Amino acid sequence: NPELARVADRHKLPLETLSPQGFLLRTLDDGDRPLLVIAGADSRGVLYGVQEAVDQVITCSPDGDVYATPCDLMLRPALEARACECYAVVKLEFDRLLSDIPPGKAFSSIL
Fold it and tell me: Could you give the CA distance from residue 105 to residue 69 in angstroms, rounded to a whole number?
């Protein structure tokens, strides 16, 4: 992305030090405009950066104005595979649903 390269060079963003699946979130002023930079080492890094921004940085007012809380984060995953958490939540919810069904009625209740 040429625009990201320009901003990274102008503001000395350490994009080359991002580890696989890592990302950088930084608010800054680029001339006359405020920016929220979300950059990832790879496509997963970008995805996780956007998720972190939505969860922790981007907010909106009751009037619908969107704001970015000032931030300067550079994170990398603690684990290479992150999807196992989703499975555990789904499995726990499925087990809870099945526990509410009387014995012998599980198959017909699921359909």
Answer: 51
